[in-house]
Specification:
Chain A is mainly alpha-helical. Chain A folds into 2 domains: about 1-40; about 65-285, MetI-like (MetI-like fold, Orthogonal Bundle). Chain A has helices at about 1-40, 40-45, 50-55, 65-100, 100-115, 120-140, 145-170, 175-180, 185-195, 200-215, 220-225, 240-250, 255-285; strands at about 55-60, 65. In chain A, strands 1-2 form a two-stranded antiparallel ribbon. In chain A, a hairpin with a 4-residue loop joins β1 (about 55-60) and β2 (about 65). In chain A, α6 crosses α7 (about 145-170) and α12 (about 240-250) packs antiparallel against α13 (about 255-285). The longest helix of chain A has about 40 residues, at about 1-40. Chain A is globular and about 70 Å long. Chain B is built from 10 helices and no strands. Chain B is about 70% helix and about 0% strand. Chain B has helices spanning about 25-55, 75-105, 110-125, 130-145, 150-175, 180-185, 190-220, 225, 245-255, 260-290. Chain B has 2 domains: about 25-55; about 60-290, MetI-like (MetI-like fold). Chain B is mostly helical. Chain B is globular and about 65 Å long. The chains are: A mainly alpha (about 290), B mainly alpha (about 290). At the A-B interface, α1, α4, α5, α6 and α7 of A face α1, α2, α3, α4 and α5 of B.
C-alpha cells in the first residue's frame, strides 16, 4: 500500500485535484438540470405568455401571472441603485483620493463588515426601525417599496464601494500627474480625469450590484409588504420574484408548487443574464 | 480577495502651491465626505440600535438547554449553527482548496477546462440563495430523499461557499513567488511535495481568510436553509431538521411574540459575523505581508 502510494502519489493527487475542480462544473450542471426539469413541466399546463405577462396571481384559482413580481424586482432594484450608486461611488472616491490613510484604515473594515452582515439582520433592522419610521412620518403601513429600496440600497453599498475603489486605484497614476501638470487642481483632476477613466470598472460594479439586488430575499420579505399586485406608489407594498418563491414554497403543492419553481427559473435566467453582462464588461475592459 | 493591500497608495498631495479647485469640484468633494459619513453612519446606527435593544435581553434563560415557548431559548440554534458550519466546511474546504490547487499549480492556463471551471465558479457565486433553496429542496430533500435535515442544509451551503474558497485559494497560491517553487524543484522535490510543503503553507493565511468569511456567510444564510434544514426548535442530529441562528431570528420576527428575544439573537449573530470578519481581515493582512517578503 505504502509502496504503491510512494510510486503513484503524484498521479493520484493530480487526479484528486482535477476531480475536485470538476465539482464546480457538476454543481452548475446539476442546478440547471434540476431547475429546468422541475420548472419546465409547468409550461405544458400553463402558457408561458400568460405566466410572464399575466398581472394576476391567484394560486387558489390556478391563475399564475408573475408580471407584478418581475416589475417589482426591477422597481426595487432601481430604487436601490438611486441610493446605492451615488453614495457608493462617492464613498469610493473619498477612500481613493481624499481621505487620509488613517481614515481609510477605519473605513475598509467597516465596509467589509457592512458586506458581512447577514441579510436577515438587515431585514430585522428595517422592519424594526425603518418601517415604523416611514409609517409615522409618511403614512401607510410602512412596509413599502420605499423601505425595501433604501434597505437594499444600503446592502449593495459595499459591493459598489469595493469594485469602484479597485477601479479607481487601477487608473494609471500618470493620468493624474499629467492633469496636474496642465494646471488642474487636485479635485478637478479626480473628477474630470480619474473618475471618467475608471468608468467602465465602476459600471461593471454596478451591474454586479444589480445581480445581488435582484437575488436578495430575506431583507425584502421582511419589509416589502409582499402584496402580489402591480407596484406603483412607493409607499405601497410590493412583491419580488424571490419573495414569491420563499413565501409560498412552504405550503404549495402540485401546479402551485411547479409555478414557484418556474418563478425560480425566471429569476435564475434574469440573474444569469445580468452576471453574463458583468463578465462580458470585465472581459472587454481586460482587452482594452 | 477584498483586503489585498494595494501597491498604489493614496495619491501624494505634496505639490507646491496647488491651484484652487472650482466651486463644482469642491462641492463634489464635500459630497464625497458626506457619502462616506453616511456609509459609516448607517453601519453605526444599525449596530448600535441592535446592541442597545438586544443586550438587555441576553439573559441566562435565552441559553437554556431546552427550547420552550416560554423561554424562546436560542442555545439549540447556536448548536445547530456550529454543526451546520462544521459540516458544510468539511465538504467545501477540501473541495475548494483542491480545485484551487488544480487551477493555480497544475492546469494549463487558458485551456478549455480551466475556462469552463472559472465560468462555472463565477456562476455559482452569482446564484441567489433562494435559487439554492429551490435546488437544495428538489435535489437533496426530495430526490435523494434525505428530508429536511442538517445534512441537506449543509450540502446546499457547501456548494454555495465553494466558489469563495476556490477563488481565494487560487489567488493566494498565485501570489506565492515563483522562486519558492524553483528553489524547491532545484532541491529535488517533486511537484506534489513542492505544492503541499512549500507553496500551500505560504498561502495558508489567504485560504484561512476565505474559510473565516465562509463561516460568516453560513452563519448568516437564511433563505437557503428554511426549506432544506427546516425550522425545528431542537438541537438536531445530522438527519434531523433544526434551525440555525438566522432562521431562528426570522421565525421569531415572523411569530412576533418574542421581539426582544429576537434582538438578543441578532446581537449574537452580529457578534459572530463581526468576529469572523475581523479574523479574516487579520489573516488576509498576514498573507500580503508574507507574499511580499
Amino acid at each position: 500500500m505504502k509502496a504503491y502510494w510512494n510510486r503513484h502519489s503524484e498521479r493520484i493527487m493530480w487526479g484528486l485535484f482535477l476531480a475536485s475542480a470538476c465539482v464546480c462544473v457538476l454543481a452548475v450542471a446539476a442546478i440547471c438540470i434540476f431547475l429546468v426539469a422541475n420548472g419546465l413541466p409547468f409550461f405544458t399546463q400553463y402558457p408561458v405568455g400568460a405566466f410572464l405577462t399575466g398581472t394576476e396571481w391567484a394560486p387558489l384559482r390556478n391563475v399564475f401571472g408573475i408580471l407584478p413580481m418581475i416589475v417589482g424586482s426591477f422597481y426595487v432594484t432601481f430604487g436601490a441603485l438611486l441610493l446605492g450608486a451615488p453614495v457608493g461611488i462617492l464613498t469610493a472616491v473619498l477612500m481613493a483620493y481624499f481621505a487620509g490613510s488613517r481614515v481609510v484604515k477605519v473605513m475598509k473594515p467597516c465596509v467589509a463588515l457592512l458586506a458581512g452582515i447577514p441579510s436577515v439582520v438587515y431585514g430585522f433592522f428595517g422592519v424594526m426601525l425603518l418601517v415604523p419610521l416611514v409609517r409615522t412620518t409618511l403614512g401607510g403601513t410602512g412596509k413599502s417599496v420605499l423601505v425595501a429600496s433604501v434597505l437594499l440600497g444600503i446592502m449593495i453599498l459595499p459591493t459598489i464601494i469595493q469594485t469602484a475603489e479597485a477601479a479607481l486605484n487601477a487608473v494609471p497614476r500618470p493620468y493624474y500627474e499629467a492633469s496636474l501638470a496642465l494646471g488642474a487642481s487636485h479635485e478637478g483632476s479626480v473628477f474630470r480625469v480619474m473618475l471618467p477613466a475608471a468608468r467602465s470598472g465602476i459600471m461593471s460594479g454596478i451591474v454586479l450590484a444589480i445581480g445581488r439586488a435582484i437575488g436578495e430575499t430575506m431583507a425584502i420579505i421582511m419589509v416589502a409588504g409582499n402584496n402580489p399586485r402591480m407596484p406603483g406608489d412607493i409607499l405601497k407594498g410590493v412583491r419580488t420574484l424571490t419573495v414569491n418563491v420563499l413565501m409560498e414554497m412552504g405550503y404549495a403543492a402540485d401546479l402551485h408548487e411547479e409555478s414557484l419553481i418556474a418563478t425560480g427559473l425566471v429569476l435564475f435566467v434574469i440573474v444569469m443574464a445580468v452576471n453574463f453582462l458583468f463578465s462580458f464588461m470585465n472581459k472587454r475592459r481586460a482587452l482594452q | 480577495m477584498r483586503f489585498r493591500k494595494k501597491k498604489n497608495r493614496p495619491l501624494d498631495l505634496s505639490v507646491p502651491s496647488r491651484p484652487r479647485a472650482h466651486l463644482g469640484a469642491r462641492v463634489l468633494k464635500a459630497l464625497c465626505w458626506l457619502a462616506g459619513a453616511f456609509t459609516l453612519g448607517i453601519l453605526l446606527t444599525m449596530v448600535a440600535y441592535i446592541l442597545m435593544r438586544g443586550i438587555p435581553y441576553l439573559s441566562p434563560a435565552m441559553f437554556a438547554v431546552k427550547y420552550t415557548s416560554k423561554n424562546a431559548s436560542m442555545l439549540h440554534a447556536i448548536v445547530n449553527t456550529f454543526l451546520m458550519t462544521g459540516l458544510a466546511l468539511l465538504m467545501s474546504v477540501p473541495l475548494g482548496v483542491f480545485s484551487g490547487i488544480y487551477l493555480a499549480e497544475y492546469a494549463k492556463p487558458g485551456s478549455r477546462l480551466v475556462k469552463l471551471i472559472r465560468v462555472t465558479a463565477e456562476t455559482l457565486a452569482g446564484i441567489p440563495s433562494i435559487v439554492y433553496a429551490l435546488f437544495g429542496t428538489l435535489a437533496f430533500v426530495v430526490t435523494l430523499g434525505i428530508g429536511l435535515s442538517i445534512i441537506s442544509g449543509a450540502l446546499t451551503l457547501a456548494i454555495m461557499t465553494l466558489p469563495l474558497i476556490l477563488r481565494q485559494t487560487e489567488e493566494s497560491l498565485l501570489s506565492v513567488p515563483l522562486s519558492y517553487r524553483e528553489g524547491s524543484f532545484a532541491l529535488g522535490a517533486g511537484k506534489l511535495r513542492t505544492t503541499m510543503r512549500i507553496v500551500l503553507p505560504v498561502a495558508t493565511p489567504g485560504i484561512l481568510a476565505a474559510v473565516l468569511l465562509s463561516i460568516g456567510r453560513i452563519t448568516g444564510e437564511t433563505a437557503a436553509l428554511i426549506f432544506t434544514a427546516g425550522t425545528a426548535t431542537r438541537m438536531a442530529s445530522l438527519f434531523k431538521s433544526g434551525r440555525t441562528l438566522s432562521v431562528h431570528l426570522y421565525q421569531l420576527q415572523q411569530e412576533g411574540r418574542y421581539i426582544n428575544e429576537a434582538f438578543a439573537v441578532a446581537v449574537v449573530l452580529l457578534l459572530i459575523v463581526a468576529l469572523m470578519n475581523g479574523l479574516s481581515f487579520v489573516a488576509a493582512k498576514r498573507l500580503s505581508r508574507k507574499g511580499s517578503a
